[in-house]
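TICKET #2291
ISSUE: user wants both folds in one file
ATTACHMENT 1:
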Amino acid sequence: MCIRDRLPIDRLHNPQDFGEKLFAKLRKSTDRWEVRMTMLAVAGRLMGRHRLIIPNFYTYVNRYLHPGQRDIARVLAALVESCHELVPSEELTATVRALIDNFASERNTEKAICLGLNTIRELAAKNPTILDEFTVNYLADLRLYRERNVASAAKSLVNLYRDIRPQLLAKKHRGMPGETISDDIVYGQLKVVDKIDGIELLEEATGIAGIMSERVLTDQDFRKLKYLRMKAKEAEQPQEDWEDVEGGEDNEDGDEDGDEDGDMEDLEELGEIEELEEIEEEDQENEEDGDDNADQDKNRRKGNVSEPKPRKRIKLDEEEMEEMLGSEESEDENPHGWVDPEEIGKFKLKRSQMRGQIAATKAKQKEERKARYLDKLQKKGSGLTNEEKKRLKPISMVRPKLQRDSRHKQSRAKVKSIKRQLGHFKNGKLVNSLKRRKV
């Protein structure tokens, strides 16, 4: 077992009691927002990890479900992590309604709609029973929204329900019409797995029958299994062979169609109508046989007729496997299923918005560089202003320059005061100015 699998959250003795005490402390807490946000994240992760149901948790979270909330992406991530398949749909009804009203509605901004749709999609992936048919189709209609971020978020929700609960989708949202629909999901129903999916591919590639009973599968075996699944999926995809049709053949067919009337007149004159009728009857019989074959093909596609198809054996290529799967470190980026707030708040900006954001970032970086440069100069003891340098110089060095500056300032001040007095005299305000000077 890897060290990252030995998490403290999995080693708790009584997680239900700990979660209830933590949530009770959170409700009464008057600490800073960062502390309460951390407590909320821990409580949500604890519920999802141990499949806990804490009363009034979702009612407490609903008060923070509005777009203007501080750290709204972290709040939604904690909400998603707290959800699991054992949570009753009645517990999340008010939460889903709040997400639709406050986020996933057309009166909100595009970013808020994306937040709501991404959150609902993550909740539905963990508990598909939280949405009913009307809600699913209402959210699916947002795939025609004018903003591409909203449309892509709605399409991802539709694709999710095509896989898990296609019964709730309208016919226009289901996709391929020939696909079979499985039974609906029931609350509390667990899927029991008795073998690893695709283990027969690994047995064929390695030549070991019953490999699960022979030895314990290693990480390299699972990498091989993943590679074989990908190759089998590629082999199952239909490949259409296109044939080039020359233009001369089309013209010849057109000429033949144009001469059909003349041929009919010749047949009538020769008395061969009876033979033509017999040929048409034979064509009708062939068409009926062809319709029967088409019906059999349709039933076979639906799964009503079982016809085994030979499957080609997939060879294991080590070099190709390394190229497709990459290194060991990048295989499991999120082994525990934690929710990243950045993924929920993912929103691609427009070009104009990106330009403004880039300009603001550059201005901020420029200010930071300037501040670092000034701090560096001050630490070195250099970069002083002229006034500061004057204070540090001896008075004998500074006195002549100060005297020249004072004489220059005095002459400039005299000329300026004379001009001001003349201006006041012209405007009749000289007396008032003199009074102000005396005061």
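ATTACHMENT 2:
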Amino acid sequence: MVAGLPCYGGARLYIRIHSPPVPAQLPECEEVKKKKLELNIQTCGDDEMAQAQTKENQTFVELVKDILPLLKSILTNPVFVLVVLGSITDSMIVSAFAAWLPLMVESQFGLSSSTAAFITGGVVVPGAAGGIIISGLIVKTRKLTGIQCAKYQAWIGFVCIIAQLGLIIHCPTLQIDGANAVKNATCLEVSNTCTNCPGSDVYEPVCLDGRTYTSPCNAGCLDYNNTTTEYSNCCGDMTATAGSCDSGCSMLIPYIFVLFLVMFFTFLNNVIFLTVNLRCVKDNERVMAISLQSVAFRVFGSFPGPIILGSFIDKACILWNENACGDEGACQEYNNSQIMAAAVILAAVCKILGTVLYFIGWRVWVHREPSPPVVYHNDLKHGVVTNVASEGQEYEEIALTANVLSAI
């Protein structure tokens, strides 16, 4: 962490120094706008684009007055509202898993905190990055329209639901003496002869005969070997080892594979979702739409997600650490089946709801904007074919080669 902060700060400083020379818009932007105006193409936001050129000298007060009409137009756009609501459910899943996934892996497979965090990061980051990159390539190579992106979004959500079913993979819960297993009568009799056995505020687990005890004293151990780090004379004449018992579960690799698929398909909608948001609103509403989407993510997605999953995980605790006053502290051991059920139920409910909203948004967009006729302008340079749509419909320009034009 000490080395990471300077690297992060240096990267931010480098970006900050080199960002001022970056132009406010791409070099070809003005040329494209002029071409659209010359062709008199009526598209979603093109009429506002001409008006915007006359409002460059607006005062701040006038700009503020324009916010309310923008908000009304955006919030009454059914496609935008449905897609953002669906993406909120995705944000809940991502934020909840980001907060609790290392603990879930640690509890399920009996790993240390550092190992669980390393495995989680090694799976989630490549999966998310791969999904975002492939998402951009899909939109770029297939030249998807807004309605096509909305369709892809719904189908990707359906595939992600299927992938999430693999999260039912889990390991059996440890048998902890006195917590989720009946106390061993023989060990209890021996431990009663010990003095000052630690209470529930001290958790020093030992493994004895396939069962985990909260402390060597509670296991009735009388001697400790510093060389072998083993406890002897436990429960009469048995040997115990420090640490919790090994569950013998070998499902870590399948769980990692399923987790990678879930992260990949979840983030596969990233660029597609952004494309849908930008194309379902007018040109002059896009900045405000992205702002509203970001606020909705943080308030309704990232904030409640970890809280909801955390409350379910707390209920799965089978051994709490208690202080001298009897107040509960951190949880020592969890019921793995309950943790699995909480994660699967939350992910399934959120993803099913999100996919339904994506599907409805796609169908609403299709019925609201039927496919426009295609008009070919053969007199344009470089063979540009223009798809002319009525106001509010999506506009696409596709550059074709001379061979395709001659074939037409």
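RESOLUTION: both attachments delivered.
EXTRA DETAIL ON ATTACHMENT 2: The mean pLDDT is 76.
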